[in-house]
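COURSE: Structural Biology Practicum
ASSIGNMENT: Worksheet 4, Part C
STUDENT ID: 0417
INSTRUCTIONS: Below are two proteins. For each, the amino acid sequence is given first, followed by its structure token string. Answer the questions at the end about the second protein only.

PROTEIN I
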Amino acid sequence: MADSEMLDPAEFSSVAEIIVRNQLKIKELTEQNDTLKAFFKENSEEFPVGSSTVVGKFYIKVTKNSRVDDKLARELLSVRDYNVNSKMVIDSAHAKARLAPDVYTSIQKVYENKIEVGLI
């Protein structure tokens, strides 16, 4: 595919179609990979946590997937331990609803525009 600088704005429709087709391919491949990865999960005796399998120039590694769960932490920790190990971050939806628009805008960091592709 050509660099974006080389595309004519009149080519919008064909560029958009290619993006949509690629997104559909990505979705299909992701679903296939999820199904194939289930093989390793379902065969945990042959592929236990910590195991690696080399396939050509690639490897497949089974790793533990755990995270601290806020609900469990609130239930199992003392209030002091919970508070000491927590951090406060601003809630953007709450701030947007309650701050003056100019104040809300002043606390926003602007990033590169996102290009969203979806089905209608």
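PROTEIN II
(use this one for the questions)
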Amino acid sequence: MLKFAMGTCVKGADSQIAGAVGRRQYGAGRASGAALEVAEVRAPASIFPDDALIGLDIKNAYGQAQWTDALLAAVSKAPKLAVPMETMWNCLRIAVYMQDENGNGWHMFPIYGSLIQGNLEGHPALYMIIAVVLHIVVNDPRLSQWSTRIRHWPYVDDWVIQVPLDAACLLMKSVLEATQKYALPLQLPECAFHVPALADQTEEEWSEEVKQLSQTISYCPEGLILLGTEACKEQEIPLYPPRVPERLPEPALKRKDKALRLASATLEMLALATLAGGKQPGFAIARGIIAHSFDCDAGVLPCSTLLPHASIIDDAVENIVARIMDLGSEQLDADQKARIG
């Protein structure tokens, strides 16, 4: 009931919340937000390869966010949401009123407790706090001369920033000050940066700015993983370095290898299966799992990069279907292959 009540309040404040979190917040209920963020990051990374791409991770932001900060953010940015939040914060309960089915009377149910991790799991209050932190960094006068070159892409509590190298250390100082002010410390071991133009350089060839930045956060020569998706393990999404478009990133290669191993095991299973319906599970595995191995990559990698590897997956699926039909894969006609696809 509590989730239902708060969910209704959140829905009623949708327009204010959308304005509060800003168009750059890719995790606030946006469809395909991760894939969209990757596309948005890749374009300026190609245009400004000498700038640093910094990936920042706020340490357990859902658990770290303070109620007072959340409430103040709601009051200033989404006042429609502030009332139920203040009720939860002040009275530790929400009063839900429900009318009789026959319409003769109303009943009040006090609901106590909170949502997961202080009512902030999936709650827009966290997005609004991060929007406040972002506002502080964007308007830091020390960074004003680079304001047109610094770009921000937050994804829930993970944050990608593109910044000229000569401003990178100053930017990190500003970010650390702002996040500490709102009790949202950075998880520095998880933070990293990548400079596309340095893909072919050794550490001895780095500029002084790169060396200074690497003392605060680590340098990733192969590009960044989109923070927030690394917890998905096999579905992690790479912020692919545009300088090497012909090379498939490591997470995608792992997905490809796993799909091919599953295809091989499926063929072995089919060889031992009974004739009467025993081969049908093989089709379900091929169509429902193997054929979708590159789903998360298709939205973020160029077709020219992905297609040669995807065709190998397609061949594996066709081999399984042909084995189920007691045919060779070369015996499948164009219509049968189109149906598989």
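ANSWER KEY EXCERPT:
Q1: The two ends are 44 Å apart (CA to CA).
Q2: Residues 25-61+139-239 form one domain.
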